[in-house]
Amino acid sequence: MTDQNTVPTITLNDGKTIPQLGFGVFQIPAEETKAATLAALEVGYRHIDTAEMYGNEKEVGEAIEASGIPRDEIFVTSKLNNGFHDHDAAIENGKKSAELLGGYIDLFLIHWPLPGVGDFVETWKAMEELYRDGTARSIGVSNFQTHHLNRLRDETTVTPSVNQIEVHPYLTQDPLRAYGAEHGIATEAWSPIAQGLVLDNPTIERIASALDRTSAQVVLRWHIQRGDIVFPKSVTRSRVEENFALFDFELSDEDMTDITTLNKDERTGPNPDEFNYIPS
Question: pTM of whole model > 0.70?
Answer without folding.
Answer: yes
